[in-house]
Amino acid sequence: MVAAAPLSYSSYRTYLECPLRWKFLYIDRLPETPRGYFTFGRVVHSVLEELLRPLVVPSARRIGEAESQRTLDEWHPTPRTGGEGSLVPLEELLAAYDHAWSGEGYTSPEEEQRYRTLGRDLLRRYHRQLQAERPHPVAVEEHLETRWDGIPVHGYIDRIDRTPLGGLEVVDYKTSRELSRDDARESDQLSLYQVLVERNYAEAVEGLTLYHLRSLTPLRTPPRGPNALGALHDRLGTVVDGIRAEAYEPTPGRQCARCDFQSRCPEFRPVPAAERERLAALVDRFESLRSQERQLEHELKRTAEELHRAAEELGVHRVPGSHKIAIRRREEAWQYSLEPVRPLLEESGLAPRVASGRAEDVRRLVRDPAVNPEIRRKVAETGARRVKWFWEIEGDEAAE
Are 18 and 241 in contact (CB under 8 A)? Predict the structure, then answer.
């Protein structure tokens, strides 16, 4: 069994995408092919850290990661150093960019040059924006850890800002081509960062932001509520349980096109040459039988319908054949559409009794003499009986 190591957002997302790829990366430590857009993002992030670090005014931090009740004695202020420095001049910023630049992962010199030019333009425009409106960061590129109700998590947060009301705002830079406000509202990464900040800082998180660097657009969203955080915690728990159980089955999908481990994955591993002829014959046989199965299913259904029509016309339920008897059976089920009476059920406090939507729960309410007869009548009127006929061969399984 694998010990539960702290989960980052990247690790969590990788496992959800494909548990086998997670194993290759985090257990086997197999290297991936460098990609230019990842290299570009790392370079830009490192330069932005240098640009904003002189503006940082650190904030109060928690002592330890205890899950017990916290008191004022558990808080301690970090010395307020820095924060009064001026912005790094543009020339120095671009020089730092050139020094940090890496050509790793680009598919051609032309692609590398396009990204390099994009980065210089992006930094110029961002520097100009900061001159007009400076943020108030309390941390940049901050590594935070915690145990979230038993689940160890960690992450590197691009920026944590002080808000005008004295709280904190989590900012995550994105160098991707496109980004929408829905991306910010639905981001598990921002949700996880909110938890990390709230469990490591004294102040509350008042906002979450994905900052789209290409358009210099901050996509802001309110902090997550208990329901959203609870749902994320459940998903993290599922990942942790899977890792502990060493459940590393592959999950094929669109992500396979960019996976470096296809040669190791059973979804793509080629059949050994010595076995190809034997297995090819089995595949051909399977294909032939599946085709026959579909044809027989169609024929069986058509024959059952013809028998049903004849039995209806003759008013019989048992039809003898040459060797056995076909017996006509029926299944009856009730279905209810409760939307028209939903306000009435909620007003009378009866909605929880039929929240499952199961027909047996609704019928139990309809038969309950303690319930107002008018309500029972209206609920009953939303029901419809569904009758399904099928055939059995005496002593055999049913045929619909």
Answer: no
CA distance 35 to 3: 30
Quote the CA–CA distance of 327 and 317 in Å, as a whole number.
6
Question: Does an H or E element contain 112, and which?
Answer: helix 109-132
Q: Rounded to an integer, what distance in angstroms lies between the CA atom of residue 141 and that of residue 162?
A: 15
The fold adopted by the segment(s) 9-257 is Lambda Exonuclease; Chain A (3.90.320)
Asked if 155 and 200 count as a contact pair (C-beta separation under 8 A), the reply is no
Residue 93 phi/psi, 5-degree rounding, is -65, -45
| Residues 396-400: contacts with CB under 8 Å, at least 24 apart | 396/324, 398/329, 399/300, 399/304, 400/301, 400/304
β-strand pairing of 205-212 with 168-174: parallel
Q: What is the pTM of this model?
A: 0.69
Residue 211 CA to residue 194 CA, distance in Å, equals 15
What pLDDT was estimated at residue 86? 80
Burial class (CB in 10 A: 0-12, 13-18, 19+), 154: middle
Q: What separation in angstroms does the CA of 153 have from each of 11, 17, 400?
A: 10, 18, 53
pLDDT tens-place string over residues 229-288: 999 999 999 999 999 999 999 999 898 988 999 989 999 888 899 999 999 999 999 999
Cα separation, 5 vs 382, whole angstroms: 53
Residue 83 Ramachandran class (φ > 0 left, ψ -120 to 50 alpha, else beta) = left
What is the DSSP code (8-state) at residue 375?
H
Euclidean distance between CA atoms 13 and 218, whole angstroms: 23
Spatial distance between the Cα atoms of 130 and 62, rounded to a whole number of angstroms = 30
Cβ neighbours of residue 261 under 8 Å, at least 6 residues apart?
A: 20, 21, 24, 30
**How many angstroms separate the Cα of 162 from the Cα of each of 56, 168, 245?**
10, 5, 41
DSSP assignments along 49-77, one per residue? HHHHGGG-----EESS---S---GGGEEP
Distance CA 288, CA 294 (A): 10
Token code pair at residue 75: 């808080």
What are 186's two structure tokens? 């639905």
